[in-house]
Every structure is written in structure tokens, then in C-alpha cells.
Amino acid sequence: ACRDSVLSNGSGMCAAGGSICIKRNAQSCGECIQVSETCGWCSDPDFLGEGEPKSARCDDLESLKKRQCGVDNIENPRGSVVVNRNNPVTIRKKDVAEKLKPEQITQIQPQKLTLTLRSGEPQTFELKFKRAEDYPIDLYYLMDLSFSMKDDLENVKNLGTDLMREMQEITSDFRIGFGSFVEKTVMPYISTTPARLINPCTGNQNCTSPFSYKNVLKLTNKGDEFNRLVSQQQISGNLDSPEGGFDAIMQVAVCEEQIGWRNVTRLLVFSTDAGFHFAGDGKLGGIVLPNDGKCHLENNMYTMSHYYDYPSIAHLVQKLSDHNIQTIFAVTEEFQPVYKELKNLIPKSAVGTLSSNSSNVIKLIIDAYNSLSSEVILENGRLPEGVSISYKSVCKNGVVGTGENGRKCSNISIGDEVSFQISIESTSCPANNKPEVITIKPLGFNEEVEVVLNFICDCECAANGEPNSEECDEGNGTFECGACKCNDGRIGRTCECSKDEVRTEDLDANCRKDNGTDICSNNGDCVCGTCECKKRENPAEIYSGKYCECDNFNCDRSNNQLCGGHGRCECRKCVCDANYTGSACDCSLENSTCLAKNGQICNGRGTCECGICKCTNLKFQGPTCEICPTCPGVCTEHKDCVQCRAFNAGEKKDTCEEDCNYFQLIKVNDRDKLPQPTDQSFPLTHCKERDANDCWFYYTYPVCLLSVCLGHLKCVISAPECPAGPDIIPIVVGVVAGIVLIGLALLLIWKLLMIIHDRREFAKFEKEKMNAKWDTGENPIYKSAVTTVVNPKYEGK
């Protein structure tokens, strides 16, 4: 626990300074349980010792148990979650003959819970959402009827029946409505000349008078009615490029009855090819009153456009969310960037690219609806002060989201079920200590979860308190939870003093030990004649005693630990744990650390003091007096005595009886009959030594005390093992034979080398002979002996 300086960082209960429960100086059980979920209050009336303040009753649970507060006396109320309404989600099919009403369809579970919250203890519950098949849809088409939208109006005239046909694939319960907007009917947005108020268009164009917003068709399931009324609409005009669409959106959102919204999926399609005016732009026309966010439709026309400014984006977001309306912005390519930025500010909204003449509006609506309906985003209502909420989503295919991503799930198909882990935590009690109600709902859906929050602001034992109790100085307080809760103006553990009397000489005298000069030993304050000891920066360090003369941190230390880590400090003296003694509990009474390998305490050559060997034989050292750097080995040490006793030889032959009578000797016939270490109950050393004649003798030696090993009982073989002399003849024959064989081997090697050399020389000669070239021409100085003369007259006949 924190009081023992074992600090925890996981729960926030303890920090480097100790328990947060003690630091807060709680004066009642109610104050204590508000500090942290890990704090408890001991209601045992006899729990506190002398000098301990009332706040010492508040501590972490483990510390209270260690301070001998019974489990039944520890007040530690816990929060809870109770599900009040838990209707299962609806499984609805399109092909079923009997259709459910919208209010009979459930897509979110549970529907109502009651949470009991204790400060610092979050309560978690699971919320499930499942998209219902064939869920009803209301779609309101809000269109810009300024002059630039003339060709778009032609394509929208048949939208009702065409859209009805397409939406049949999604739902069998679909309704559609239509509204239009232009601009505020004041300068400089429109021309206010009489002629332009009748026909704002130039040239031969026939346009209708300008207006702010008109509800043309209330939501209906009659597509042909939509076509008929839209076909009767005419284009109007204005002067500036931005339009007054925000006025129209606000009226569509708040005028539920006039528009005909049901508690189903609500879609608002906003179609335009221009930007928008927003809050503040009304000043151009002299309009300064902020939009009031209320319905002002008379005969389906917005009548207060000249009186109220445009709504702000935040105001629109609030109203669209409050009325569960999902917005689809169908705008031309030119204004895509503007409306995409607007989409990021409006939850559950989408942007589609409208062709220049709105020919793709049906596909745009279907795609946008599929995108919106495949995503669920949770939002909660206003939270009471001191209450926080966190979300963790478990979406399709087990994808987990936390933080802001924990509020939403995407790519949800019809019939898919997702869940959310929602944690609600309170950090304090509300001022009025009354239940609070918050709502959690998926954006764009009419269903919501009601969460009732109850707060634990006091302990159960406080309900059994005794007002004006005799325990509290004759009725000056309420005795509750084992302590006095003083009335106003009274202080002290038992409310024994008035605040006006807390410093008098008579009362201070009761706080001086042995009539000394120090009040409460300078470690506390004298309150009503009783010492209340000071609290140190580390709450684990405590002053106590009637005069605060004791503490639990000024005891002797060992190894930089209070009481050596083997005791507790009480009134500046160490109270040692079992098997420890000394002023700092640094002397262990255990001798297991002194046992040598042979089982002796300190190897029989020292004493064990406080778990450490102190060697009496100065030749020996080490933790168990087993190391002797200047000592010969055991075998060498006893060699001469064993040799003289067993074979009447060696250096101690003449003094054998005097020097070597400290052990018993048993002879065995051969080495195999010597005792083995596994046959004995004490360590045994096997020795092998050589005498002056180079003969080996073997013996065993027990490494233990005389009393244990019966006088160092040694076993030795009856005769030494001496090596036999060498056989000369085989050695001589072997040497001669070796020399002969080596000579023959050398001759054979020489002969082999000569043959190889000759063959190489002969091969070289043959190669040179083959490569020789002989000159076959005549000798240049050779003269033939025959001379041939030709007759010049000879004609060859």
C-alpha cells in the first residue's frame, strides 16, 4: 500500500508523495469518496489513535485494512448500470404484407438506462445499432430558382415519378416534397424598382417575382403531384451571385408541421449553382437582427427574410442535428470546393456534382443516400458539469475505433449490426445533487437512448447519522460514519471547541509535553487543547502521539532503508519482523546464510553473527570460511600420515604415532572397494598421491567434524600401485627394425625420384626433336661442275 511506500501508477491512487486520499484532508465520508474511486472511509469509532486528525479515516482501501479497520467498517460505495428499457432491434422485410409504423421500428438497443456514478469510477455499457430493411424515407428537394438554373428546372419537372420509381428499390415507404428559394427581397440583393419587382429578368424573359423561400409541395407519396406543381414553377432573378439558401434550409428544418416531416429518415437535397450568404451578410441590406431559428411560414412563404439576418453555419448545424435531417448538396463543378468545406462542418451531409442541366440528379441522390446511410455517427446531448463520456466502436469485420473514431462506423449494409462501448465518468457531484438526463443518438436518425445519471455524493452510513449527538460534545454535531460532523462554528474531533476559542493559553497548556515550551512538540497545532499533528509532504510519513512526539520515519536505517526493510518504525523505534533484531533490524537470526557446502556452520572455523560468518581461524576467509589461499589441499595435507600409517614409509615414518593418531584407518584390497560419495551421509574426498618410489596410493578422506565422522575415518588400499620396469629386448629390436625400415623407405624414395627425373628429361628431348626445322636450300657458295651451253643458231629442229 502507499503507506509502505509501494507506489502505484496505474489507478492514480498513489503518486510519488503517497495516497491522494490522505492529501485531500477529507472531513467526512461524503468528501472522502469524492476524492477517488480507490478511497474508503473507516467508520469504526475507535479507529483513530492519539494525535491523528479526523481526515486520517480517509485512505486507500489496502492501507485501511493494514491499519486494522475491519472490512465491515470500510465505506466504499460503488456505481452501477441498470437497463430500464431494452427492446430488441426490429427485423423488417419489404415483402411482408403487414407494414410497421415508423414509431414501431427499433434500430438502436437499449433505449433507456440508469447509471449510478461515483466520482472517478467510469460506468460502461454497450449500445447496439442495426440498420433496418425497408426503413421509410422523407426527401425534400430544395432548389435554387435564380435565372442561372433555368435549364435545370426543366429536368426537375419529371423528378417526382422518376425518383419514386428508383427509391422503390430501397424502401416501399417514400415521400417527396419540393421547395424553392432565391434571395432576400431587399437591396442590394435584388432590384427594388417596381418593374423589377414584377419581372426581375431582362429582355423578353418572363420571370416570376423574387422571393426568399417558398414551400411548393408538402411531403407526399404522390409523384405525379410533384411533377404537376414543379412544372408550374417559374424562374426568378437577383442581382448578386451568392444566394439566400441558408434562410431556406433553416425554415425547412424548423417548420416540421408545414413541411410534413415524419420521424423517419429525413433527407434534404439542396440544389444550386452558386455560393451562399451567411450570418453577417444581412448588414449589406440593413438587417442586423440575428436569425431566431424559428418557423416563419405564412401561406408557405418565408415572411421574415427582410427582418432577420442569414443564419450562421453553426446555427444550421444545430437545427439540422436537432431535427435529424441529413443534407445532400447537389452543386455544380465550379462550387464543389466550397460545399465540400461546408460538408466538413455539417455532420451527416454529402456533396454531389450536379451536371450543368441537373440531368444526373437522380443518380446523385441515390449515391449520396447510400453513402450517408452506410455510416452511423453517435452524438450526445449536453453533459452536466463534471461529467465526461468516451466511445469505443466495434464495427463491421471487427474493426475497432477509439477516440473520435469511436463514435462512428462506416460501410454498414442493411442488416449489419455494430456495437459501441460507451463509458461515462463523473469527477464531482452536481451542486443540487439531483439526477441528470442525457441523450445519445445516431446522427440522422430519430431514435435515441435516454441515460439517467444518479450521483453518489455521500455514504450510506450518513443516512443513519445522529443529529446533535452526545458523542459530539453534547450535541454540537452530527455523529455519522464513526465521526462527528460539526455544526457551523464548531471544530475539533468531537466538535469540542468554538472557532472563537481555538487559541487560548489554558488550551495551549494541554498541548505541552511535561510542561515544556514546545506546543505539540513543534510537530502539530493545538486545536481546542488537543494536538492535531502536521501532515508532511509525503503522506506515508506520519506524526502521531498525544503531543505529536512520535513519527514513523526517524528510525535507524540500514542499506539506506528504514529499519533495514525488515521492520516498521513506531514512535522513532524499529519494531523488527520475526528472525530480525538490532536497532535497525539489520541483524538476521537465520543461520542458513552461514552454512558451508559440508553442512557445517561457517565450515567449523567461525561463528555466525547476524547471518554473516566471522572466521575464528585467520587462515580461512569467505562468506562461509571455506576459502584458504595459503592452505595445501586436503589430500596433500594428510598424505604423509596416511603413508606412514598404511605402509610405514614417508617423511613422518619416525613420528607417526605422535603426529598421525587423529584418524582411524581401514585398508581395502583394491580401488573399487573404496567408499563412494553417494554411499555416505557426509562429503567425501578421493585422494591419489605418489611416494618417493613413484608408486601411487589411493585413499578417501571425509570432510566433516570429528564427532560426526567418527574420528576422520579413512580408507586406503592395502598396497601402492607401482609401475612395472621396461622390457629391454623388445625395445632394442624395435629400434633396429625402425632404422632399417626408415633406410629402405629413403632408398625407395630416391629411386622413385630418379625415375621421375629421367622420364622428364627424355620427354623434353623428344619434344625438341619434333620441333626442329632443317634447311633444304642450296649452299650459296656451291658451284656445279657441269656447264651447259646453248647454240644460238639452234632452232629446235
Describe the structure.
The protein has 6 domains: 15-77, ligand-binding face of the semaphorins, domain 2 (2-Layer Sandwich); 80-94 and 101-133 and 377-456, ntegrin, alpha v. Chain A, domain 3 (Immunoglobulin-like, Sandwich); 145-374, Rossmann fold; 557-588, Laminin (Ribbon), CATH 2.10.25.10; 590-631, Laminin; 634-717, Hormone receptor fold (Irregular), CATH 4.10.1240. 21% of the residues lie in helices and 24% in strands. It is built from 17 helices and 44 strands. The protein is flat.
Keywords:
6-stranded mixed beta sheet, ligand-binding face of the semaphorins, domain 2, alpha+beta, Rossmann fold, 797 residues, 17 helices, 6 domains, single chain, Immunoglobulin-like, disordered N terminus, 24% strand
At a glance:
The chain is 21% helix and 24% strand. By secondary structure, the chain is of the alpha+beta class. The strands form 15 sheets. The protein has a 6-stranded mixed sheet with strand order 6-8-24-23-18-21, with no helix packed on it. Strands 12-11-10-13-16-17 form a 6-stranded mixed sheet, with helices on both faces.
Question: SSE layout and pairings?
Answer:
Blueprint: E1 14-15, E2 18-19, H1 20-23, H2 29-35, E3 39-42, E4 58-60, H3 61-66, E5 74-75, E6 80-85, E7 108-109, E8 112-117, E9 123-130, E10 137-144, H4 150-156, H5 159-167, E11 174-181, H6 194-198, E12 213-220, H7 223-231, H8 245-254, H9 256-259, E13 265-272, E14 297-298, E15 301-302, H10 313-322, E16 325-331, H11 336-345, E17 349-353, H12 361-373, E18 376-380, E19 387-394, E20 400-402, E21 408-409, E22 417-426, E23 436-442, E24 449-455, E25 477-480, E26 483-486, E27 490-491, E28 497-498, H13 505-509, E29 524-527, E30 530-533, E31 543-544, E32 550-551, E33 557-558, E34 561-562, E35 567-570, E36 573-576, E37 580-581, E38 587-588, E39 606-609, E40 612-615, H14 634-647, H15 656-659, E41 665-668, E42 684-690, E43 696-702, H16 706-709, E44 714-717, H17 728-770
Parallel strand pairs: 8-24, 10-11, 10-13, 13-16, 16-17, 41-44
Antiparallel strand pairs: 1-2, 3-4, 3-5, 6-8, 7-9, 9-22, 11-12, 14-15, 18-21, 18-23, 19-20, 19-22, 23-24, 25-26, 27-28, 29-30, 31-32, 33-34, 35-36, 37-38, 39-40, 42-43, 43-44
Helix pairs in contact: 5-7, 8-10
Main location: membrane
Domain Integrin beta subunit VWA: 28-459
Membrane topology: Single-pass type I membrane protein
